[in-house]
From TrEMBL:
It comes from the Bacteria. Residues 1-21 form the signal peptide. Keywords: Signal. InterPro entries: UCP028069 (IPR016866). This is Energy transducer TonB.
């Protein structure tokens, strides 16, 4: 009887232990499933968070790009406005240039006429060279390949050369007219104050007289100063005071 009770008790304990083990195993499975589900959910949450962060970053980047585009748009608008003003300014300048050109061309012809008259009425200092320069300028005026600005510059250059004749000393060889006879001579000019000639052998001297527009012979008293003036012009002597005949009023033998 006692043996049966003991066996029954062991059987019951064994059954209870098996049931408990089965329940524990089920609980562990449930726990594992819950942990797996929790991990899966966490992964989804993490992925969603990463996606949200990435989207936020993209939105911020897009907002920055939009702001930059607005700045660039405003810049381009200002640039276009500035270019429009520049175009208008250029149009106004072109219109002004056309008006100026219409006034400059007649002015250049007037300047050439004045230059020609000056040379014709002036002392015959390098006269052939000066007349040739004016003739060249007159031909230049009808050349289409030379701009008006360049034409004007060359005319001003010719005026400057004419001005230099009135302030500088110079010498050259040329011919002078004496009683319908042309002779070779050394010529010296001191501005437009004095214009003298010396025979090539250095024995005769003449001075230009503006009143008669002729060469007049000079007394030998002038020979020393005239020869010295030639030496100074040739840089063979140092500058010094000279006594030269004034071309508008000279003394003769």
């Amino acid at each position: 009887m006692n043996l049966k009770k003991t066996s029954l008790a062991l059987l019951m304990l064994s059954t209870i232990s098996a049931a408990q083990a089965s329940a524990l195993n089920d609980a562990r499975k449930v726990e594992s499933a819950m942990n797996h589900a929790s991990a899966s959910s966490q992964q989804k949450i993490d992925k969603s968070a990463e996606a949200a962060f990435s989207m936020t970053a993209e939105i911020e980047q897009l907002q920055e790009e939009v702001a930059n585009l607005r700045v660039y748009r405003d810049h381009m608008a200002n640039l276009v406005a500035s270019q429009a003003e520049e175009v208008k300014s250029l149009d106004d300048q072109i219109a002004g240039i056309k008006e100026t050109r219409q006034g400059v061309v007649p002015l250049m012809y007037q300047m050439l006429a004045g230059l020609k008259e000056t040379v014709a009425n002036d002392k015959p200092i390098r006269q052939e060279q000066r007349l040739a320069r004016i003739e060249k300028l007159e031909k230049m005026m009808v050349q289409a390949d030379i701009s008006d600005a360049e034409k004007y510059r060359r005319i001003l250059e010719a005026y400057q050369i004419e001005m230099d004749y009135g302030t500088k000393m110079g010498i050259y060889q040329g011919q002078i007219a004496l009683d319908n006879d042309q002779i070779d001579a050394d010529l010296l000019y001191l501005g437009r104050v004095s214009f003298v000639a010396r025979s090539l052998d250095g024995t005769q001297f003449w001075a230009w007289n503006d009143n008669t527009a002729k060469w007049q012979p000079l007394a030998n008293d002038y020979s020393k100063d005239i020869n010295k003036a030639f030496a100074i012009a040739e840089k063979k002597a140092a500058p010094s005071l000279l006594t030269l005949p004034v071309s508008v009023n000279v003394e003769t033998n």
